[in-house]
């Protein structure tokens, strides 16, 4: 059928009430930023009206990461992850505006918001991550594998709050700045490596 031009200046397109993926291995390689990701998608659902250059993508997924490599550091090897996301995409500006993204890692929930912009030379990040339903053990799972061994055995109780901001450009020569703030309220941190808990 003949398509007509919509308000955003794009002809044709695709509108998905629901698209479903099951048992798919997803591999992402970004040579420019030296990033490699391999994920097993157990189930993922997508919906959105992709007929224009600006659209919202609504998606939920249940995943297991094989690995996330950034440079020489490996993150999230063999971790079960789920997300519920609403992302505004602008194909003219090559931006991904994270309106509401809830990320579950084990029993821990992280909320993400902010903007990711792609260019030919770099990827620009301006992201905020918050969790008031987390633990010290969950935060350690986010660290590169080489750091996890030295922190193994640490446990926490109480209310653990986590805030992080990721801001700046990522390319073959630089990575964005990461600012992290953690708070423990009415809690305790213990480890066999400590003489006493605190």
Describe what is shown at a glance:
It contains 2 helices and 10 strands. The chain is mainly β and 198 residues long.
Note down, in words, how this protein is organized:
With 198 residues, this protein is mostly beta strands. It is built from 2 helices and 10 strands, in the order E-E-E-E-E-E-E-E-H-H-E-E. Strands 1, 2, 3, 4, 5, 6, 7, 8, 9 and 10 form a 10-stranded antiparallel β-sheet that branches. The N terminus is likely disordered.
Largest sheet: 10 strands, antiparallel
Task: Choose one word for the global shape.
Answer: globular
Structural class: mainly beta
* Helix coverage percent: under 10%
Distance between the termini: 69 Å
Order of helices and strands: EEEEEEEEHHEE
* Strand content bin: over 45%
The counted number of beta strands is 10
Which radius of gyration do the C-alpha atoms yield? 19 Å
Query: How many helices in DSSP terms?
Result: 2
Mean pLDDT over the residues: 84
Uncertain regions spanning at least 5 consecutive residues: 1-10
Descriptive labels:
globular; 198 residues; 10-stranded antiparallel β-sheet; single chain; mainly beta
Helix-strand layout with pairing:
Layout: E1 15-30, E2 35-49, E3 54-70, E4 73-75, E5 80-90, E6 95-105, E7 108-118, E8 123-134, H1 136-141, H2 145-151, E9 155-170, E10 177-190
Antiparallel strand pairs: 1-2, 2-3, 3-4, 3-5, 5-6, 6-7, 7-8, 8-9, 9-10
């Amino acid at each position: 059928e003949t398509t007509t031009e919509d308000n955003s200046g794009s002809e044709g397109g695709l509108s998905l009430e629901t698209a479903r993926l099951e048992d798919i291995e997803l591999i992402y390689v970004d040579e420019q930023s030296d990033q490699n990701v391999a994920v097993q998608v157990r189930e993922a659902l997508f919906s959105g009206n992709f007929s224009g250059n600006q659209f919202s993508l609504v998606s939920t997924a249940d995943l297991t990461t094989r690995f996330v490599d950034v440079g020489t550091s490996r993150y999230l090897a063999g971790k079960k992850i789920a997300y519920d996301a609403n992302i505004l995409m602008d194909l003219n500006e090559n931006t991904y505006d994270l309106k509401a993204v809830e990320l579950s890692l084990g029993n821990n929930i992280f909320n993400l918001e902010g903007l990711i912009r792609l260019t030919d030379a770099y990827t620009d990040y301006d992201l905020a991550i918050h969790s008031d339903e987390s633990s010290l053990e969950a935060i350690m799972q986010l660290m590169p594998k080489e750091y996890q061994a030295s922190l193994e055995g640490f446990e926490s109780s109480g209310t653990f709050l986590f805030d992080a901001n990721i801001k700046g450009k990522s390319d073959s020569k630089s990575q964005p700045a990461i600012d992290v703030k953690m708070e423990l309220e009415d809690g305790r941190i213990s480890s066999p490596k400590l003489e006493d808990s605190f």
